[in-house]
Amino acid sequence: MKFTKTLATIAIMSALTLTGCSSDEEKDASLTDGSLNGGMNDASVSGLNDSSGMNGSGMGGRFGANGGKYGSKGANGLPPEFSDPNNPLSKRTIYFMLDSSQVQQDFIPVIAAHARYLLANPSQHVVLEGNGDERGSREYNIALGEQRSKTVAGMLKAQGVSESQLGIVSYGEEKPVAMGHDESSWELNRRVEIAY
Predict the structure, then answer these.
(1) CA dihedral 142, 148, 149, 154 (to 10 degrees)
(2) What CATH number did the domain enclosing 27 receive?
(3) Full residue range of the structural domain in which residue 187 is found
(4) How many domains does the chain have?
(5) H/E/C letters for each residue in the chain?
(6) Pick from 38, 120, 14, 37: which is nearest to 71 by CA?
(7) CA-wise closest residue to 80 among 61, 57, 64
(8) d(Cα 169, Cα 152) in Å, to the nearest integer?
(9) Strand 191-195 and strand 93-95: pairing?
(10) 94-152: per-residue pLDDT in tens?
């Protein structure tokens, strides 16, 4: 059953994430040094792999001149880093493989950047909104969207983010961003949105 394979994949990814590094510094570096960033596989989202910060290089210095402290709040209540297209914090959509809750490799540094922000701002909260494409039953897509949200939550918690900062919701196929009935639309709908 597809859902069982998905759960097994999540368990393996979680175990690898938790045992992959011996210290927080090594774990943080491994998530942002670009070593995990290969090309996206055959179900990649075209146009999403821009080299302006997604490859993990130089991300440490982009959070402001105060050594990791975040600047003043912008009009939307978030610091200006969230509007800078060169900053991984500006990317708040995480994409997934077909029929899977496995995060595409290019989005691991984005999750790491959001984890650092949440750690530096313990009063900040996010809702992880899981979504799926239109294929499969409504029930299956709700469950898959929830698993996708839980995968991102697990990755954030593995980096020290408090569970109290995280909310999880699944919309299944109910909130598509692309209305087409083809692979390019489905790729864009397999996602978790990080809503602050």
Answers:
(1) 140
(2) 3.30.1330.60
(3) 2-37+44-195
(4) 1
(5) CHHHHHHHHHHHHHHHHHHCCCCHHHHHHHHHCCCCCCCCCCCCCCCCCCCCCCCCCCHHHHHCCCCCCCCCCCCCCCCHHHHCCCCHHHCCEEEECCCCCCECHHHHHHHHHHHHHHHHCCCCCEEEEEECCCCCCHHHHHHHHHHHHHHHHHHHHHCCCCHHHEEEEEEECCCCCCCCCCHHHHHHHCEEEEEC
(6) 120
(7) 64
(8) 12
(9) antiparallel
(10) 999 999 999 999 999 999 999 999 999 999 999 999 999 999 999 999 999 999 999 99
Neighbours of 24 (CB within 10 A): 10
- In degrees and rounded to multiples of 5, residue 126 shows phi and psi of -130, 155
